[in-house]
Prior knowledge:
Elements: E1 6-7, E2 25-27, E3 53-59, E4 86-88, E5 95-98, E6 101-106, E7 112-117, H1 131-144, H2 147-152, E8 156-163, E9 166-171, H3 179-183, H4 191-194, E10 213-219, E11 223-228, E12 248-254, H5 257-265, E13 271-273, H6 277-282, H7 287-290, E14 294-300, E15 307-312, H8 322-330, H9 334-340, E16 347-348, H10 366-372, H11 382-385, H12 396-409, E17 412-415, E18 418-421, E19 429-434, H13 440-451, E20 456-461, H14 464-472, E21 478-483, H15 492-497, H16 516-526, H17 531-548, E22 551-553, E23 555-556, E24 559-565, E25 568-569, E26 585-586, H18 588-600
Parallel strand pairs: 3-12, 19-20, 19-21
Antiparallel strand pairs: 1-8, 2-5, 4-5, 6-7, 7-9, 8-9, 10-11, 11-12, 13-24, 14-24, 15-21, 15-22, 16-23, 17-18, 25-26
Helix pairs in contact: 8-12, 10-17, 16-17
Amino acid sequence: MSLASVLLAGHCAAADVSTVPTVHALPLFGEPALPADFDHLPHANPDAPHGGSLVRAAQGSFDSTNPFIVRGTPASGLTQIYDTLLESNPGEPFTMYGLLAEGIRLDPDRRWVEFDLRPEARFHDGEPVDADDVVFSFQTLTTQGQPFYRAYYSDVTSVTAVDRDTIRFELGDSESRELPLILGQMPILPEHFWQDRDFEAVTRDALLGSGPYRIAEVDPGRRIVYERVDDYWGWQVPVNVGRHNIQRLVFDYYRDQTVALEAFKAGNLDFRLENSASNWATAYEFPALKEGFVKQLQVHDGQPAGMQAYVMNLRKDKFQDVRVREAITMGFDFPWLNQNLFYGAYERTDSYFENSEMEASGLPSAQELALLEPFRDQLPERVFTQPLPMEQPEALRPRLAHALQLLTEAGFEARDGTMVNAQTGEPLNIEILLYSTQFERIAQPLLRNLARLGIQGNIRTVDVNQYLNRLRNFDFDMVVGSYPQSLSPGNEQREFWGSEYADRPQSRNLIGLKDPVIDALVDRLIAAESREALDTAAHALDRVLRWGFYVVPQFHLAAHRIALWDKFAWQEPFPEYTLDLSAWWVDGEREEAVEARQRSR
């Protein structure tokens, strides 16, 4: 590929590049927390030793080492073999600092952004990382990669290699404030490596990158191992100093989480992020914990909790009526689950932006109404007249009574104990698709409660590959879906809720939303020019989504639950917003003690 532009659309006039300062960081709002001469991230230890290993579990199986394409099931951890133009600081809401790029120029009107590459940057084979590689990466990911990349970078109109070390992106008219920052998140691929390879084909090769780790071992479906690159070009870049300290990162695959837990207790795994409240409360009472060789650690999570929920597939006729969807949500008995299954560990999730200032509450503010009023004829009246959180009964009996009333209004009736469409006689039945037996005990109470209304339900648990294939083709009634949110939501919202992604295989619009009002609100959120405007747009979007009853919200915990063998060290305090394991290291003396204990058993 030459240094010519890869044109995607028209060119826009903007500020003269010579008048735009070159900076070391891009914040979404305000100023960077770290100065231009910072030498390491505050939570990283520049004197941390290197060595040791971290072995953890991955669920299911894998058959690909290419995480960027639709086909195949990629292995865990693959992104760490690649560098990006910029790197985020886990201690800030959303600020990006130079990694491959040592300098950044952003047009004051945000119509273009330029990145200056570090001339010393190299791929693992010694070839330089240059502007052509960035152009290649953008073009390849947006034309041959997962739909996510097309959505994420849809407002880029062209990308140009200005010279060997300078890349320029022309930005469209969407006013997406975050677009220059998320361009910095793009993994940079080696053009020379992919010239004679099919990017869209499933592969198990040890692919080439420029990051702090390389693939050392691939055992498809069983294990993947990464090793620290001793001659990595970027060890002295400030965002890397004191990070990526562990020599070998190992992901061992388990199809059953119960087996993975036992493997941890036996010392075959070093680390677990525990997602089960029951396990956290009861499963770690074993000798190594009592002897101090295993620790349980709970680390605050400053990010929005987002939405984990049972997602209803609007592509199915049974879910078209909002009254049916609302009735199904009434069958979810959170107080019972929290008391009987979760040891009181969780809080109920109400909002798509839970645990953040972006969560809608009360009645719409004047600022929200300015966004919502143009769509009053297309929105439920409750959006304007009823406060959030919704006033709903807590006890199950009145919840089910309300659900029955809603189903009756929607044209259903009970016949011989079965809820059927009064006109067609077709039963109302629901299947929840899962890939882990661990979630069955949480889904069963919902189906049991719905059965009291005459709604027939069942759980279908399949292996991970079959589950992913069915998700790609939207072949499900309901699934457990997760919509993670950052403190600065942006372009990813289009793929969550946008009409253009409703029928695109492997998109994250699992609901199948095709709503012009939601599309317009997403556009307003992406175009927000201030923190206040972003929060207002998020409030409006959250409010409309919640009154649509598209999901059955579940629960959340604003913390990471970590169980680990006591051979790791870290610097405190932890970053405010994101858990950063790359800043941890292995303590040699404690590692020896742990290994001696395990040999003696």
